[in-house]
Amino acid sequence: SIAYGWRTLACEGPYFLKKNYRGRLNPVYPSSEVEILRSCGLLIFFFSPPFPLFAGASAQSRSLRTMSSLREPLGLLKALLARIPLILKTILLHGIQMSPVKGKQDMRTELTVAIIRSFMATKAPLGKTQKQGIRDPGVKGPMWVSKVTLPQPEVNVRDAVLRAIEDLKTGDETYDIPATAAVEAEWTGYRAGVGKKTPEPDLSEEEKYYKLREESPSDMTILYFHGGAYFLLDPCSHRVPVAHLSHLTGAPVFSVRYRLAPQNPFPAALVDALTAYLSLLHPPPGSLHKAVPASKIVFAGDSAGGNLSLVLLQTLLTLNRASGTIHFHGKDVPIELPAGVATISPWCDVTRSMPSNSSNAHLDYLGAPSAPSDDPAVKTPFTPLPFAPDDIWPASPPRADVYCNASMLSHPLVSPLAAPADLWKNAPPIWISTGEEGLTDEGLIIARRVYQAGIPVVAEMFEGMPHCHGIIMMDRPASHRFFEGFAGFCRDAVAGRVVSTGYLTWLGFKLQLTKEIPIEKACEISDEQVGAFMQRMAAWKLEGEIELQKQWRATARL
């Protein structure tokens, strides 16, 4: 059992050259598991990067700092030895058909989920965790990466975001007003004919960009936002799946290094996202790229990046209803919508109040969130996020949430699940892919509302699969099917041929069964229940935030 467990973990996790379930060869990506561990310090890369991008702020941060020791072989060995009982228990229960995920996950998936989950139980200072997650492991293998910096725009871009926020407010929501800033990003594309360890050539960023464009001939551009709960990770952590997406579509991918919380809370990331989009449409002076028509751009992102894709779209829709232009680098430019939006396990409910957060917890590495008691007679005190304090967290004044003030949790530009169907009218086609995970409910409800708004929506759900399964287990049949759907939607969106069938595609365990379920029946939670769940959780967190700030002020007076 020990030998089998080690082979499963150490030998079957790579994401490089393998035949997929239809017999085709997938490209070779860098690099070996141990090399990835050394460069990134993330156990998740042991299975195949990038780090699974959640949603659950406390869980991710606790795991990343602990895993920083995995940069050395001794740290890796200690981590695995400490988890031998867990590995043996998982293998044993799976082998004797007594696993709680029986019939939904194979051995390797269950081990992957169990070990990732185990690392999420470790506390960590948030600042050190964040630094670990954005450390650049370098570029090698079959990918081109050209790093660019978009110049700081006028305040008009920020002010446009603020107008959209104000237009969608329903009460006394409060938020920080960010400055505009230069935005870093990476052009990423597929590089043919090289091995997984081939270093990137010694070329200027401009030369690398033109090499990338030679191998990415499509006139489509994918604007990609990484996940990481809005406070973790980076374009460098997503190069492998992003390069693979470029290979499948033939398109360059523009991956944005948006500002991270808690140092830059909402709406800083949204301002950066809008800056990046406008820069594609209207290149600032000195840009490497030529203007890309809106009809050739697809927004895409995983987890929090899926959230950012959707709220950027909502921002554009809101601004379109009020005014037609934004002043950008000296010109009034029109507000245009992209060809489509593609989301991977999108984090649509920052309150984390939907039932699937708990009901699917046994299948996912995302733990069930703390919540108030269902019994009105029982008062459940709010529990602050369990981070060891450092120079960036707790914030001053303290917040209940890393990303935003608690009063903003149910705002449509924070939690797109708060947007009713009518706010999605006139949107471009949207693609939503989810596993059977903590965030399943919110993804399916968004799909339902988009469909009810008359917008083409393509939705799929993979039975038994955890959060962002397609980009953390890239050599699995489910991931191959996921990427085929992802790339196919992007191509169809720019070609104007996305057709909404009104059905969710449900893909069974090991892809042995496929069912078509009416989108309006895919999640039985009513809109009224959704609103009640979100408001209850947001109110509980707001109450906790108020108490935290009272304690903070009392301490400050001492």
From TrEMBL:
GO terms for molecular function: hydrolase activity. Gene3D superfamilies: alpha/beta hydrolase (3.40.50.1820). One of its GO terms (biological process) is monocarboxylic acid biosynthetic process. Keywords: Hydrolase. It holds the Pfam family Abhydrolase_3. Residues 222-358, 401-468 form the Alpha/beta hydrolase fold-3 domain. It comes from the Eukaryota. InterPro entries: AB_hydrolase_3 (IPR013094), AB_hydrolase_fold (IPR029058), GDXG_lipolytic_enzyme (IPR050300), Lipase_GDXG_HIS_AS (IPR002168). PROSITE patterns: LIPASE_GDXG_HIS. Belongs to the 'GDXG' lipolytic enzyme family. This is Alpha/beta hydrolase fold-3 domain-containing protein. It comes from Penicillium nalgiovense.
